[in-house]
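Lab manual, section 2.4: Encoding a predicted structure.

Procedure: take the sequence of the chain (358 residues), apply the prediction step described in section 2.3, and record the output as C-alpha cells. A sample record is shown.
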Amino acid sequence: MNTILVTATEESTGKTAVALALARLAQERGLSVGYMKPKGTRLQSNVGKTLDEDPMLARELLGLDAEMHELEPVVYSPTFIEQAIRGRAEPEELREQVRTSFESLAESTDLMVVEGGGKLTTGGIVNLTDPEVADLLDADVLLLSHYERGSDVDDLLAAVGDVGDRLEGVLFNAVANANFDPLETDVVPFLEGRDVPVLGVVPHQRDLAGVTVGDLAEELNADLLTGADTDAFVERFVVGAMSGDKALRHLRRTKDAALVTGGDRPDLHTVALEAPGVKCLVLTGGFRPPGAVIGKAEEKGVPILLVQGDTLTTIERAEDVVHSGRTRDEETVERMRELLHDHADVDALVGESEVDGE
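Recorded output:
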C-alpha cells in the first residue's frame, strides 16, 4: 500500500481538486483507493456539527463508506486553535487519533490519498503540520505551488526543505500562459538541478478560476440592480476605501476583479466603471446608488450587486466563495483529472495500474 500526501506552499492552490483527481485516476487503473484529510480546515455547520466540505465531497465522488470522524479526525476550527494555544489539546493524543483513523481507512487499499489542510505549516500548534503528518503516516509528498515570478521559487525551496526526503515531487498548478515558457525553460531545469523533481506544470484554466458574477450574487444573496450579463469571472476583490483619483490608478492595474465598497460612494462607483478589469460592483450596507451610476453601469455592461451586510463581512464571504466555490464539485474534479492526465507524470504519482503490475 502506498500513501501520498497532497500539500501546498500556500492556501487556495488546488489541493482538493488535485487530490480527488489523483484518486480517480488511480481508480481508473484498477487500484483500490482511500482518502483522508487529517485536519478539517474548510468548515461549515452541518447537522449541528462542524465539518470540512472536502471529505464530504471525497466520500461522494470516490464511493467511500467511511464515517466523517475517520475521514476528518481533527476539526481545525478557530475554537480548536484557541483551545490548543491554551494547552487544552494534547498533541500526542491527536496524533494517535490521526494514526488510528488512517490505519482503519487504509485497510485493504492499494493507495491512500491524504489531503493537507490549509498550507504546509497548518497544524503546527499541535505538531501536525503536513510534513509531520507525512512522517506520522509514512507518506510521500506531492507539493503544489503557483508560479507568477522568480521570487516564488524562494518560497518553494523553503517548503521543499520542510518536506525533506519524503518529497515525491512538485506540481505547478494554474500557471498563466505568460509564465508557462519561463517556468519550463528556466525554473524547472533549475529545480531539477537542485534534485527537486517537477512532476507537472498544469496550465491556468479560466473555468477553474474564480466564480461567475452570477454565482457570486447568489452566494452573497445580493440584489442585481442592472440587467448586465453575469457570466464574467471574478478572481479577486478590491476594497473601495480610497479617493477617486487613487482608486482609478489602482483599478486600471487590476483584472477580473470586483470592487467592494459602500453604496454611498458614487465617486468610486463611477471610477470603477471606467476600469476594464472590474467585472462588477458589490455595494454594501443596503445603500442603493444614484440612478446615474446605475445608468452608466447599464451602458458599460457592468453588473451591480447590492448586499445588506457591511463591507468587511462581505469581503470575507466573497473571498471564501472565490477561493473555494469552483473547486468543490464533480465537474471541477473531472476537469482536473483531464489536466493531470495531459500535463503531469501520473505514473510517478499513483503508480502503474494493477494490470500492468501483474
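Check your result against the sample. DSSP finds 16 helices and 17 strands in the chain.
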